[in-house]
Design goal:
Elements: H1 5-19, H2 24-73, H3 77-85
Amino acid sequence: MELSIGEMALIAIAIVVLFGPDKLPQIARDLGAGVRKMRGAVEDIKTEIMKETDNPVSEIKREIEKVKDAAKDFNPMKDVQKDILSDPAVSNEPPKPKPADDETHEGPVSR
């Protein structure tokens, strides 16, 4: 909203006529105090909004860090390597014969 010089002069004359020249300094002080309070309230609202919007973001970041830490310790190949590298003589199961050595193995059946 832009006011021209003529509009501002008209507003000033109206204020002087309505309130008188004696009350003009008090009106200016009260108006300045009101503007300061309004600016302070706007800053408080901005701060609260920033706090509220920052909390979900920081919670998500913490969860991502937890997942990253868990992923560092997780090794899906550990169990597979343990099974592959384990000595069959140590296990309780007898070793399975290879199909070529097994006389009872019939192989795939075609229909």
